[in-house]
Amino acid sequence: MFRYETFGDETQWTDTLRMNEVIQAAVDPVTALGVGLKVDSDALPAAVVDAIKAGAVDLTSTQTTLTLIELGAVVGVQGTVATADDGSKTLTRVGITCALCHSTVDNSASKALGLPDGIGKRLDGWPNRQLNPGAIIALSPFLDSLGADAATTVRGELNSWGPGKYDPRYIVGGGITDPGVSYPAVIPPAYGLFGLKNAIFTGDGDVQHEPVGPVAYWNRYVSVTQMGGHGTFLDPRLPQGKGGGTGVNNIGADGVDMVTAHLPALQEYQYSIDAPAAPAGSYDSAAAARGQALFAGKANCASCHSGALFTDATEGKLHPADASVAADKVYITLSATQQWRTSPLKGVWQHAPYFHDGSAATLADVVTMYNDNPNRPLHLTEREQADLVEYLKSL
């Protein structure tokens, strides 16, 4: 389900946004890799790999992209491809899955084939921080129906997000909630989630608002309000138009809910994905040991980043808006809780940039921003800050 289930969202990506037309007309493999789409090398037949090695595959042809989609090799993209008598292909339907944003690849095939990064074995749960969803959606001819001025404004906002960011409160239920005003967040990892009582940055997801579980809350929100899957979502705590108020009802004409029944198994799969261990040799062990003492002591990080998962979200705790030193102060106001969940730190080495808005490019930036916080400065020396960074890199 995580890799291949679209929840019927082809109605949004094909019938409304007409992305099948965009892909067929303008998205060759080089372009696709350039906007962060990934190719699952395990889905490529040996004959195709051999042809690529021999230079017999045109990577500047959109027909090659359609072949990759037909093979199920484009991570997070599901399509129906028709082949004419002359061999030409047409993408008749296209939809997306969870894996589009929350999987990447190890680039092993890219290296072996001498091609740009983006081809290799799947790494499920790893956020695709190269994906540029705003730039992709901005290509949709549907936006022209908004009128010339509105289309220009919306496209400008979508293109401003940049790689690895997406605003889940900007486009809700297929509609633009506030053209020209967007607060994109970094795509979060979908690993290391088991044991958390609150999901996502603001902790909106919990069992009180989704009986299946906290991650299932966000799966329902995204599959219905963002992907366009056939289901319903309502959270009265959310602001009007953000999934609150009357909520979002995307049940198709046949009246079939294609989301709810999938939520338990989907959540269980996500729970099964462990955070990746730090690569050998990627940090200074002696400095990390000193940093561990600072983490629990002088820096007091462990007061919130506690326990085996390095988060008090295992206890259901949330924190007020001023607990974060991130640059953006608006995103939290568009949430259900208007509070922050403490981010789990296992695997934190893997998913730069940091904070919900990506305002810290590196872990060193994170430590500096907290150390220099005028409300609660840490008073760490430069050496202590460096040691703390090495500890974070080890988690």
Summarize the structure.
The protein contains 14 helices and twelve strands. The chain is an alpha+beta fold and 395 residues long.
How would you describe this structure to a colleague?
The model has no long low-confidence stretch (mean pLDDT 97). It is globular, with a radius of gyration of 22 Å. With 395 residues, the protein is of the alpha+beta class. It has helices at residues 10-16, 19-26, 29-34, 46-53, 62-70, 99-102, 108-113, 133-137, 148-160, 214-226, 263-272, 285-296, 363-371, 382-394, and strands at residues 39-40, 77-83, 89-96, 103-105, 119-120, 122-124, 165-166, 171-172, 175-176, 185-186, 232-233, 248-249. It has a two-stranded parallel sheet with strand order 1-5. The two termini are 29 Å apart. It has 14 helices and 12 strands. Helix 13 (363-371) packs across helix 14. A hairpin with a 5-residue loop joins strand 2 (77-83) and strand 3.
Residue share in helices? 25-40%
Distance between the termini: 29 Å
Which residue ranges are poorly predicted, with pLDDT under 50 across at least 5 consecutive positions? none
What does the largest sheet look like?
2 strands, parallel
Question: What overall geometry do the principal axes of the alpha carbons give?
Answer: globular
Strand and helix order = HHHEHHEEHEHEEHHEEEEHEEHHHH
Q: How many individual helices?
A: 14
Give the mean pLDDT. Answer: 97
Q: Rg to the nearest angstrom?
A: 22 Å
